[in-house]
Design a protein that fits this description.
By secondary structure, the protein is mainly α. It is 58% helix and 0% strand. Helix 7 (113-126) packs across helix 9 (145-158) and helix 9 packs across helix 10 (160-171). The longest helix has 14 residues, at 113-126. It is elongated, with a radius of gyration of 31 Å. Mean pLDDT is 85; it is low at 72-83.
Length: 172
């Protein structure tokens, strides 16, 4: 039997590529991205996850924060004493996260012009009678009364100024 043929070319070392740079780029590419901007800014790559979170005043293991009561009281008491002695070196992370969480979020949802016109037509023609709206000829998608009610409530919630001017024009 003949031998298997070797591959065409011998592998040679490429001196033009910076191996250290490629390794660092690969490590950064494979590393998970941290969504929270405050944690990402304070993160130290040379430390472990647990050390980073402890420095920020956060807890790595949720079981250590809220321990499940075990019959062995001596071990859990020593664990509580160890966790109380942690020193927070980056308290600004928690302060930034708390300030961001206390800010009210802006509702970015908006409705299409067609849906607004649909809701206005239904209110103009039928008022609050959702069953009649479901039978309306403009109900192209054959929405049920609950679906129509939900669409109208979305219109009221996301466009309160338009809705108030629309109801004022109906009363006049």
């Amino acid at each position: 039997m003949p031998k298997a043929k070797k591959s065409g070319k011998r592998k040679k070392f490429d001196y033009t590529k910076n191996r250290k740079k490629l390794k660092k780029k690969l490590r950064n590419k494979l590393a998970p991205t941290i969504e929270c901007a405050q944690i990402r800014k304070a993160w130290d790559d040379r430390k472990t996850v647990q050390q980073n979170l402890r420095d920020m005043g956060l807890q790595h293991d949720s079981k250590a924060v809220l321990p499940i009561r075990q019959p062995k009281l001596m071990e859990s008491e020593t664990m509580d004493m160890e966790t109380e002695g942690t020193i927070v070196t980056k308290p600004y992370v928690i302060k930034d996260m708390e300030s961001e969480a206390s800010n009210p979020r802006q509702i970015a949802k908006t409705l299409s012009r067609d849906l607004i016109e649909y809701a206005q037509h239904m209110i103009r023609e039928h008022g609050e009678d959702y069953k009649a709206m479901a039978r309306d000829e403009k109900n192209y998608y054959q929405d049920t009364p609950k679906q129509i009610r939900r669409k109208i409530e979305d219109y009221k919630r996301h466009h309160p100024d338009d809705f108030s001017t629309f109801t004022q024009s109906l009363k006049a």
